[in-house]
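Table S2 (continued). Query chain:
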Amino acid sequence: MREPVEPRPYHHGHLRTALLDAAERSLREHGADQLSLRDLARELGVSHAAPRRHFADRRALLDSLAETGFVRLGATLGTALAPGEVERAFPTRVRDAVKAYARFATENPALYELMNSSKHHPGATVVTQAAAAAYGQMIDLIKEGQARGVLEQGNPEQAGIILYATVQGITTMVNSGAIGAEQLDGLVDTAVAQFLRGARPLLDGQ
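Corresponding output:
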């Protein structure tokens, strides 16, 4: 006679965090299409209904995962931009921030792809807000450059889009295998130098 199966616990001490951690592992290994609340529940040893106490459906889980990605990206940029013992020159601060961004994107390709697709999903307000908070640090940096007279006056968000598009192109090529990851830092250095040269204020007569 078979032993009765002990029911799995409905509760988990830190289920939301555990679900997000497991979801990111699954995303990295199998992609977003294979992500399943039921599979995650099985992996964590909880009832299949338990995850729905934190995430109404799979879309909600993906949006939360994208949100945490932007929060981490924001922290990464914040660390790169934090003042050190010696004040860094403005070009160095831009290069440090862009390099930190590019490394995050290439070290977390599946998560980064999800972040970018989720922020355009209807109703993903928390994702959009988290993205704005992260990218806002780069806009603030451009405003700083304009205030210092290092960058040309104008719409800082437009300048930010140009810089973002350039770096996005580089990281996409790395993540797709079109160029090797060992080229990332050098390409970022070149991209930032060209951006700063093109965005500097024009002198009279130029």
